[in-house]
Amino acid sequence: MAYFLKKTHRNGRTYLSIVESYYSPQKRCGAHRTFKSLASVESWKAKGIEDPIAHFQKEVDALNDEISNSQALKISESSPELYLGYFPFVSLLNKMNIKKFVDYFNISNSFEFDLYELLSSLVFARLVNPCSKHKTFHEVLPQLKDPVHFSYDQLLDGLAFMGNDYGKFIEIFNEQMKKVYHINTSKTYFDCTNFYFEIDKEDDFRRKGPSKENRKDPIVSLGLLLDANQIPIGMKLFPGNESEKPVLRDVIQALKKKNQISGKTIHVADKGLNCTQNIAFSKENGDGYLFSKSVKTLPEKEKIWVLLNNEDWKEIKNDNGTLLYRYKSCIDKFPYHIEIDGKKKTIYFTEKRVVTYNPKLASKKRYEISKQVEKARSLCYSQAKRAEYGDLGKYVNFTNENGEKAKATINEDIIEKELELAGYNLLITSETNMKSTDIYNTYHNLWRIEESFRIMKSDLDARPVFLQKENSIKGHFLICYLAVLLERIFQFKILNNKYSTQEIMKFVKSFKIVKGESKYINVTTSSKFIKDFEQMTKLPLTNYYLTERQVKQIFRYKI
């Protein structure tokens, strides 16, 4: 459709009209019709318009501009992007037939929504873009392939219902996972972490206790049991003030009993849980342990071994030949000091110790140390009081050689030692027959799982009252748990652990399309993983253009 100014000469006068051109379905071709008659040029000149043709041509141009603007594509209030990277997990849920068993909850409860749709869509949203439940509902769920059929209030109700008895949902996944995939429980791993909430007042569930971030906020503790491949097989949530040794013993035993596990469990811990009591606890139960220890706290003899640059070091590189880390190990008896019946005793445990050096971590640590030293120097120059230094005081001498109070000066020896130890880490385990690389991978895989849970913690408290309730919080962690579970099944059972968690999750989050005029445009950045996965699945994952049929083909894929 378009407009033009028509000029007709008749009886010595020039008549004007605005004519509309359009497509005629009857004639099956273009046609014209008068949109507006404008009388003669001479008449308009008599009315004072010097150039009627130029005057009405402007009106025609305005009409054509209006048509052009009305036909142009406009941005909308919602994002045109659609996430596709979660399609392998759709296939996994279908293969394990999870819907059949979750649907039983619909039968026994008067839900006005589909509980399986709610659970699965929240898991998919958590995988592609982890964020608060409010943002998930309003921004992430609309970007999944299929629209959801529940309201935000129903989302909150469903989340609380699932959290009320989250163990049943974990049991459903475990039973179906065992039927489809072999789960290796000859050796299991246990990790315990906690999550802080930025609230002032405690409640029955969020209680103040020893926080890994050394914060004073109320926390919730979480125990996680994993199989030999670090695939989650059990989760237990408990108040933060109960994360002491007796509670951990009960949590481990309850999870092992529930999952019918009698083999050894390796208690994996970070630097905050490597006390002698926890080690002895693992030993007395016939279990093992694996924890990290700061090399800065080692005796001088062990520090010399850590820094000794000999032929014992082995290097691990990526496909491009870039050094990821290097390591060396030793097996020996190491002393631990414990108090029994009020008397201090020294006991010895035979352990394997693996020291690693990570060049990326070293660079990061050196940068952090340099920034802290710079601040400490500024305080020295300004003659700040000792109390103003805080943690920076470790880099400063406040006394002279005789131990007398003196002007603050930078302690170059301490700085040199810290820079020298940057990038080194020590892993200690009771499993002396375990390969050093397996020790490293086990610890870091569990660290990644813990990091997967460390998403949007404070958002739970920032939401309305619904997400401050205990069951809603438990429902949130259930969704996180199931997201991690599916990723680990995909990584170990489908991809045979050929790709890292980082590579997989980068694909899951970045594989997106945008709706074009007739096709979808694939806006994903190319990677080795997506090329390999395309070869494996025979799906058009790297095509720039995707049709509606191809998108449906991707989501019908069976693993």
UniProtKB/TrEMBL annotation:
Pfam families: DDE_Tnp_1 (PF01609)
Protein name: IS1634 family transposase
PANTHER family: PTHR34614, TRANSPOSASE IS4-LIKE DOMAIN-CONTAINING PROTEIN
Annotated ranges, domain Transposase IS4-like: 207-486
Coiled coil location: none
Matching InterPro entries: IS1634_transpos, RNaseH-like_sf, Transposase_11
Organism name: Allocoprobacillus halotolerans
